[in-house]
Amino acid sequence: MLMKKIVFVLGFLLVANFGLMAQLTDQEDVVFNAHLLETFNLNVVTGPIQEITFAVAADYNLGVTEAGGIAPGLTTITVEATGDWELEIEAPDFTPITGTGNIPIDNLGVWCEATGTHQFGTEVTCAFTSAAAAMGITIAPQLLIGLGTTNGGDATDNAFTLHWLMGTMQGTMETESMFNQMALGTFTVGDYTTTATLTLTQIP
């Protein structure tokens, strides 16, 4: 009787152990393919339209800026790029809505301020970083912001403020005052318009 009990217990243990050893498994894989496409965005955040007013003699003699005469006088932009880039600017001469003649476009000037993580002299370059060194806009494209070390990044990296001037005769702007140009008959009083184009280009 004792022998039977022992055999029964051993048999139960063997069956239980065999059941554990016979447990089955299976595996399947899931493949993930990440597609990182290039992004290249130039965004005008504020100041897409500028209103320029020459109202008093000092405006014609000395020009106008964001401090007075140009509203708002500033344009803020950002660049979102997965690679290196450069930014050019160009514009045609001001043409009359009312008035006669054309206002040469180099009467319009711009200088740049880097407000993001990327700064001039490191990741980005700019030769026009003060009013005294303002770029006179031309009909042909000119380099406004260039490549330093590497300038790919998001809008917090590449944020800039463009400061506008007109008739101030600074930097590479027109050297004759608006008054003198009017005296020469280049243009008359009236309303004039132009559109500046900013072009973002990828650098291979």
Topology, please?
Blueprint: H1 2-21, E1 40-46, E2 51-52, H2 57-62, E3 64-65, E4 70-71, E5 74-81, E6 85-90, E7 95-98, E8 108-114, E9 124-125, E10 135-136, E11 142-147, E12 159-166, H3 178-183, E13 191-193, E14 197-202
Antiparallel strand pairs: 1-5, 2-4, 3-12, 5-12, 6-11, 6-14, 7-13, 8-10, 8-12, 9-11
- Percent of residues in helices comes to 10-25%
Q: State the end-to-end CA separation.
A: 91 Å
**Mean pLDDT across residues:** 91
**Over the alpha carbons, how many angstroms does the gyration radius reach?**
34 Å
- Uncertain ranges: 1-18
Output the helix-strand order: HEEHEEEEEEEEEEHEE
Count the helices. How many? Answer: 3
What about the largest sheet?
A: 6 strands, antiparallel
Oligomer: single chain
Total number of distinct structural domains: 1
- How does the helix and strand content classify structurally? alpha+beta
Globally, the shape reads elongated
Strand content: 25-35%
Counting DSSP E segments of at least 2 residues, the number of strands comes to: 14
Would you kindly provide a written description of the structure presented here, covering whatever features stand out?
With 204 residues, the protein is α+β, with helices and mostly antiparallel strands. The protein has one domain. 16% of the residues lie in helices and 32% in strands. The protein contains 3 helices and 14 strands. Strands 1, 3, 5, 8, 10 and 12 form a 6-stranded antiparallel sheet that branches. A 4-stranded antiparallel sheet has the order 9-11-6-14, with no helix packed on it. Strands 2-4 form a two-stranded antiparallel ribbon. The longest helix has 20 residues. The N terminus is likely disordered.
